[in-house]
Amino acid sequence: MVKVSQAYDCDVLVVGAGPAGSASAAHLATSGHRVLLLDQHHFPRDKICGDFVGPVGLLELSRLGISEQAIESQTNIINYASAFLENRELVSATIPEITGFPTHGRVIPRLLLDNWIFQKAADAGVEIREGYRVTAIHKDKYGVTVTAKANKQTFYFRTRLLIGADGSNSMIARAVRGYSPPDKDRIVAVRAYFEDVDGPQDRADLYFTKTSFPGYCWLFPTGEGRANVGVGVAAKMIPASKLGLKSLLLNLVKTDKVLHQRLANAQLSSKINGWPLTTYDHHLPVTSDRVMLVGDAAGLINPLNGEGIQYALLSGRWAAEAAGKLLVDDNLSQAALNIYVKQLEQELRYDMAVSSLIVQVIRNRTFNPVWLRALEIIGAAARQSPEYTSITGGVLAGLLPANDLLSYRIIGGTLKQAALSLGVDTVAHSVSRPMMALHSGFDIARGGVSMGVETLQHYRESIEWGQDVVKGGSELVVNVYQDLATRYGSTR
Ligand SMILES: Cc1cc2nc3c(=O)[nH]c(=O)nc-3n(C[C@H](O)[C@H](O)[C@H](O)COP(=O)(O)OP(=O)(O)OC[C@H]3O[C@@H](n4cnc5c(N)ncnc54)[C@H](O)[C@@H]3O)c2cc1C
Fold first, then answer.
1. Tens-place pLDDT, residues 238-247
2. Counting CB atoms within 10 angstroms of each CB, which of 21, 55, 95, 429 has the fewest?
3. For residue 230, which atom of ligand 1 is closest to its CA?
4. Is the pLDDT of residue 24 over 60?
5. 173-186: average pLDDT
6. Domain coordinates of the chain in residue numbers?
7. pLDDT at 99
8. Centroid of ligand 1 to alpha carbon of 18 (angstroms)
């Protein structure tokens, strides 16, 4: 039986002090609200991550008072990114120039990054409890009672509004939705640190290989010869991969020539640790009465590049801005909190839908020859056109703050070319007609039969995959329509 006390311990209780939770807590406390922040760990604490923070994330950090001047001596600058396919350079691109944003990224070990944001929350007047693991929530008409365990004791906290910022395995999201996100929306990734790494310190590397696709391996230099090296893949591949992620990473370090060259004199200086990423599905609610989800808890990961820090910081601020207004009138119903959902949808849904569709498509490894050929074509085009370089380099490396319609055109066109160059007519036909969404997924699956017996062996999974592609494709069409309608008024 949950004890319900009527006195509030705070206006807003935030669960999880990662970038999303600490940012939302700091913003709310700065605007005068009483905020309590709970985390199961004690800070500074590490978090398994690639540590790359792009221009958008850096701008959000400066909004929290963490300026570039303050962090430059402790973090490594990234001026450009290179993508390699089977030991050949596909594309090298500097960080695209976008007005108002820095023209570089930074690799910031999470031990430092999260602690800086956490300290900003403390400085803003947030009350913090470390070592408190939230185990249950109980909502009623007037507030939320949160149960937490610390030092083998149970504590209850009463709040007017609860923000769930407890990461990709969020218990608050499960409590709100009643279920966990499906595996097809998940990416799994491992990372390790290496010392004495060769090569340019200001270059972020992405390595695409047959063995790691659909997914990629990265090397992000953290400065002074160290680097964060990892690999991430779609959690649900067709057919499933037999190689574990740790073995895959060690195997790539040995077999990928470019990666091997950079690590020829290097030593592994950490364990190889893994963590799941949950990608955005706009069908899943991110609010309910008196509850909001932010960051990974809301699935705000770009499924194409695994980037989530910028979305954690952005959603933390947007949630704080929306909640700040609603707390004043104590109107915290799901309908009222919809202003936050609308902002998420306006700013991110379209980009996430494009990226999601691409991941849904490429998770069928039966078609790896098409996808890898598509990458080659993107690389070849990028070497010839600066605009293409900037867009594809930015999208692949996650350095652009937003995709636009062009991304879909580029990728759709590229897949068509790839399919044609491989002589797979059905695939070409399917990808060239995204509007005929009902048929495209199925046609791709049928077309794949000519690529080998694997599709037949995984026929059922392939059909399901085709249906997912259809779903993603139709949503994309809806999103494109809505995007155009917002930008240009009625599209009729
Ligand atoms: C291998 C890997 C590589 C990645 N690389 C990058 C990258 O290079 N760039 C990038 O932008 N993104 C990257 N990401 C994604 C990025 O790590 C996340 O998007 C980001 O951490 C999200 O921040 P968050 O605040 O939402 O959640 P988190 O950072 O996960 O923070 C959640 C917090 O909640 C706490 N918590 C959880 N459950 C409870 C509970 N029950 N009670 C109390 N506290 C709780 C945790 O202790 C934690 O401190 C990567 C992810 C992985 C797994």
1. 556 666 889 9
2. 429
3. 1
4. yes
5. 86
6. 10-51+109-181+281-348, 183-278, 353-488
7. 82
8. 6
**Encoding tokens for residue 98?**
């976008």
What number of residues does the chain have? 492
Ligand 1 site: residues with CB under 6 angstroms? 15-21, 38-41, 47-52, 133-134, 165-167, 171, 189, 191, 230, 275, 277, 295-297, 301, 306-310, 312
Tokens read off for 343: 């902002």
> What's the maximum distance between 2 C-alpha atoms anywhere in the chain?
70
Q: How far is the CA of 190 from the centre of ligand 1 (A)?
A: 13
CATH class of 10-51+109-181+281-348: alpha beta
Answer with the residue of higher pLDDT: 345 or 63: 63
pTM of the model: 0.84
**Which residue out of 47, 114, 128 has the highest number of ligand 1 atoms within 8 Å of its CB and is therefore the one to mutate?**
47
**Lowest pLDDT segment from 161-175, 397-411, 443-457:** 443-457
Going by alpha carbons, the residue nearest to atom 51 of ligand 1 is: 49
Distance 88 CA to ligand 1 centre (A): 32
- Show the DSSP H helices in 230-301 as ranges: 245-255, 257-262
- Among protein residues, the one with the nearest Cα to ligand 1's atom 52 is 49
Nearest CA owner, ligand 1 atom 38:
166
Q: List, for residues 458-482, the tens digit of each pLDDT value.
A: 555 555 655 665 566 556 555 555 5
Specify the ligand 1 atom closest to the Cα of 228. Answer: 8
Q: Is the pLDDT of residue 183 over 60?
A: yes
Atom of ligand 1 nearest to the CA of 310: 11
Residue 255, phi then psi, degrees to nearest 5: -100, -25
Q: Quickly name the fold that domain 183-278 has.
A: D-Amino Acid Oxidase; Chain A, domain 2 (3.30.9)
With a CB cutoff of 8 Å and minimum separation 6, the contacts of 280 are 185, 298, 299, 300, 301, 303, 348, 349, 352, 356
Strand partners, 82: 92, 205
Report the nearest-CA residue for atom 31 of ligand 1.
18
| Alpha-carbon gap, residue 340 to 355, rounded angstroms | 22
404 pLDDT above the threshold of 60? no
